[in-house]
Amino acid sequence: MIEPNGPGPTAPLRPPRRPTRPVRVGPVTVGGGAPVSVQSMTNTDTRDVDATVAQIERLRAAGCEIVRCAVPDQEAARALGEIRRRVQVPLIADIHFDHRLALAALEAGVDGLRLNPGNIGARWKVEEVVRAARERAVPIRIGVNAGSLSKELLARHGGPTPQALVESALGHVRILEDLGYREIKVSLKGSRVPHTVAAYRLLADRCDYPFHVGITEAGTPLRGAVKSGAGLGILFWLGLGDTVRVSLTGDPVEEVRVAWWILGALELRQRGINLISCPTCGRTRVALVRLATEVERRLAHVQAPLTVAVMGCEVNGPGEAREADVGVACGKGVGLLFRRGEVVRKVPEAEIVDALVALVEEDAGRRGG
Known about the structure:
Elements: E1 23-25, E2 28-30, E3 37-41, H1 49-61, E4 66-70, H2 74-86, E5 91-94, H3 99-108, E6 112-114, H4 123-136, E7 140-145, H5 151-157, H6 162-178, E8 184-189, H7 193-204, E9 212-213, H8 221-237, E10 243-245, H9 252-265, E11 273-277, H10 288-298, E12 306-311, H11 317-323, E13 326-330, E14 334-339, E15 342-348, H12 352-366
Helix pairs in contact: 1-2, 2-3, 3-4, 5-6, 6-7, 7-8, 8-9, 10-12
């Protein structure tokens, strides 16, 4: 109850994270309270080592912390050895159906496997994979997708329901647990936000393994970013998520950027610039859309977690600019520059971008980013 003469008790910003068992993917800890890690997947032909390494380096530069590669055949599995030697981020092999590909990927030195033990055949095949993974301390992600559930599960549940996803995941988990292996992560992905959220909520009460979260097949960059933001925002707000991939149709580097923007918006983690800019209105008397777009483009290389405000008028502009690390509040043909609440100087519109970028780069340099 809110007291009449005061604001009442302060509500927590978000519920606590779900307690989970930690696993290690190379040097990255997933679960156990570790920061949410950002993943993506290459879309190059894994057999093309140079192209795959080049894309992984672009992903790493954008902030990707774990990279997954498809392994469709033995040639791709063998290529992983050279890729592993040439990249700096943990590497996960995406395996389906053939346990020999998992064994070859482990031999190549990957840091994690993504597979479903129930679809790689007889128990002895699973035992071989688990034995090799245990020897190398490599975790296994059980990745259940709504689009690839068994016919039996689909018939029993009447479709790819949240309950069907959970039953599939627990069946795969049980296989590994029966072999005494618990270095496990789990994902339950679908393209429908309500179904995906419901599935993770159901599974959260059934196990303590860390969750890899995402809305799969989310779509083209803008549509997929919106759908991913909606779904992941709910999951993270519920404390259900330890590592994340945003699935977009396009350049995987965009997946990484969107993932960071989502984490930053929820104040879970921030990498690079948090740009605040107003939507413009009839009071705006500078070319604010151009200014904000140019500032964002020119600050894309900055890694330091800085808040930058580009505001168009005197209503909210000064307040937002003062709250930012660096900001500008614009008037008619001019901009008033702020740094952490203090006015720096007034500049003409033609100099706003250069002046603001210089201030941000100066602050980023002090922070090593």
